[in-house]
User: Fold this.
Amino acid sequence: MTVAVLPARSSGIRREWIGFAAILAVGAALYVATTWFPADMPFILPWQFEWPVYLATTLSLGWFFIGLGRLPQAERPSLWRRGSFLIGTLSVYAVLQTHYDYLAQHMFFLHRAQHLILHDIGTFLIALGTPGRAIWAGMPDWLKRPLTTRPIRSIVDVIQHPVIAPVLFISTVYVWLIPQLHTRVMLDIDLYNFMNWSVAAEGIFFWSLVLDPRPSPPARIGYGWRALIMLAIEPPEMIVGAVITLSATSFYNVYEICGRIFPIDGVTDQNYGGLIIWIPGGLMGLVGLLVVLSNMFRNEEKGAYAQG
Assistant:
């Protein structure tokens, strides 16, 4: 029995290392091409190649598909959830690692659209896909060990606390919109990347908490808490969006320094950006609430059916 299993396992490990080497090779080629010839690259390739974004995307997708093959059929996410995860992941990658990122650095409303994907729509779709179990099954064992240590678990417990989670979620909108800080961030590539990472990471943690289809336990919080959280996040995001939309004063003149790519004035650019925060951004709370209620009713029906 042992002799039969070891070669198969060894072959699987070998394929994984070959896949990892291929990911690194493609990444290295993209890095060289975009570093030396950025203006010559097609729109779908990175304007500024970022290894962390590239590796987080490719490894997550790789582990997801490996994990799907390892999980029993009953534990695999449905086809529509797999599609949701893929669309969400690719949309986040697209706004960070294509020439769209260049456009977002030169127009406030395009930057707001970028953050709508990172903070709301893209990360919402990732969480809706419930990819965690498949990614965990596909992840190498040596990486799982540090992720299960007490410090890491404690940090996640704080981030996903039902009181702290909505505060952090709204803070990633408000803090980065402070005009003085926004100006500093848009002129510093390291701060700019940190901003985008913080928005995307918080989006994944937040939406994973509230869109978990399972009841509590094993989910961290019950449906009542999740519904309250959805109701709590909607007004603050809509308020800041409305203020920016209706303002006749330009708060974000840094885009004059960077050079706007479209011939519109700063106030108009700002108003368009505020509208993106106000309407689609604000309404994501309502969409999330509908998903929470749908999950709750579905589980109640399952429970009633099982008891009957």
Observations:
- The CA atoms of residues 216 and 227 lie 13 Å apart.
- The chain has a mean pLDDT of 91.
